[in-house]
Amino acid sequence: MNRNRISANSAEVKTEIEAPTAAHLLDSHPNSCVSILIIVGARQLSPIRTADNKYDSKETIKELETITETSDQSKTTNIQSQYVIINNYNNYPCTAPFAMYAPPNAAFFQQPPCFPYYYVPGYSVPLVPSPAFGGYNPRPAAESGREPDIEKLLNNIGDAIKDQGSCRYLQKRLDEGDKEFTSRIFSKLIPAIKTHMSDPFGNYLCQKLFDRCSQSQLSMVIDEISEHVVELATNLHGTRAIQKVIENSVKDSELLLKIITILKSHVAEMVTDNNGNHVLQLCLTSIKSPHNDFIYAEIAASCFKVATHKHGCCVLQKCIDYATKKQRVRLIEVIVGLTQELVRDQFGNYVIQYVVDLKDMEINGHIIDKLRGTIMELSNEKFSSNVVEKCLNASKYEKKQAIILEMLEADSYVDMLLNPYGNYVIQKALSEAMEPEFSVLIKRVRGDLPEVRKQGEFGKKIYNKLIKTFPSLGDKPSGGKGGKKLYCLIY
């Protein structure tokens, strides 16, 4: 077969890379390759398309043969690297090409211990996933007609587990349910289980393994990771693996006790972490009281820090959902005590809203008591105005009345009506007010509307919306609140 030798010059090493012809490439991969793109130096060949925009393999091959068989190319170009992109693997869309990269420095490579790397016959160095494309070989040997050597994989498990193709093959073997094979995999992984659990591909094999481990094996895993629990829980890949350990340990009291022991002193570190918080959320849903009391105790002690964090506020809401009556009472008592601080926070206000939405009138009454004296100020702020609206919507009328009466103490509503947040609170107050507070509020707001109308387009918009929603605000009151808001009169 005719193949030219292309010289690749480097400052440190001179290596010859054998460029195969397109026919050779296609002969090696008859069922997997539709089009090939080879970049040699600065020259590039794009796959040739037919009139209906489909790849034309024959025409592409002809052009590719011309490039690879032209010796002048190698004489005029200082080749720094060579790329081969194979599009449209079986079961892989053409929109996601995979790249292989062969740098000129052959010393960079060592012979791979197992099959994860894809070889194109004829090259003097192996082709590996291109760092430029962030790609990898998506097609394990078993899929390309070669059954991998399982012994070689197991003997080189540290390398095999880092490759997606190898890892998937080992997962497939675990799915077969062979206990002897499971034990062999476990014995190979357990010495460095922490490293494998945090590997982008290896964590999936670990998860499969944990689903098939015996109680004694899971106990060994917990012992191995006990000093690295935070590192794993806060790792993008490790968090999934450690959650799988927890899922499979909660059914056994001895293993559960071990899990609690290694987690209880690290709740504060995990609750505000992007990945670690999911470990705690799993604990809340899978570990029942009183075994999960350690989570509630730690979160109650750090309630403000947790509630004002973008991940912590979600965990706090989950705590409320899965709490026993005793746990919920204690936690909400702490939250209500921090009402003034939380309502002004971009995340903390959601925690207060979540509590208000539980529609426990006694608790909501306590929250309103905490807000009193600052209603007008809070109504004009972005985050706290939402809480004031919620309280007007989900409380006993005497508590709503307390908010409205405080609003009636204001000298003017012009600033509040023109405020992008305060005007919504005014509208909610008008919707929820009953007589005699409703008539007084209508009269006070009506007096400020002419001034509001003069304040540009936004003022006109607010004016028109209020008049449309509450006809009583017009020059000729029509009685009641008008339209769909009449239900407020018979609260």
Architecture overview:
The chain is an alpha+beta fold and 491 residues long. The protein has helices spanning 22-28, 57-68, 71-76, 150-155, 157-160, 164-175, 179-189, 193-197, 202-212, 215-225, 229-233, 238-247, 253-263, 267-271, 276-286, 293-301, 303-307, 312-322, 325-337, 339-342, 348-356, 361-371, 375-379, 384-393, 397-408, 414-418, 422-432, 437-453, 456-469; strands spanning 5-9, 14-18, 35-40, 43-44, 82-87, 98-102, 128-129. A five-stranded antiparallel beta sheet has the order 4-3-5-6-7. It has a two-stranded antiparallel ribbon with strand order 1-2. Helix 12 runs parallel beside helix 15 (276-286). It is elongated. Mean pLDDT is 74; it is low at 1-51, 53-57, 63-145 and 477-491.
Short recap of the structure:
With 491 residues, the protein is α+β, with helices and mostly antiparallel strands. It contains 29 helices and seven strands. Strands 4-3-5-6-7 form a five-stranded antiparallel β-sheet.
List the helices and strands and how they pair.
Elements: E1 5-9, E2 14-18, H1 22-28, E3 35-40, E4 43-44, H2 57-68, H3 71-76, E5 82-87, E6 98-102, E7 128-129, H4 150-155, H5 157-160, H6 164-175, H7 179-189, H8 193-197, H9 202-212, H10 215-225, H11 229-233, H12 238-247, H13 253-263, H14 267-271, H15 276-286, H16 293-301, H17 303-307, H18 312-322, H19 325-337, H20 339-342, H21 348-356, H22 361-371, H23 375-379, H24 384-393, H25 397-408, H26 414-418, H27 422-432, H28 437-453, H29 456-469
Antiparallel strand pairs: 1-2, 3-4, 3-5, 5-6, 6-7
Helix pairs in contact: 6-9, 9-12, 12-15, 15-18, 16-19, 18-21, 21-24, 24-25, 24-27, 25-28, 28-29
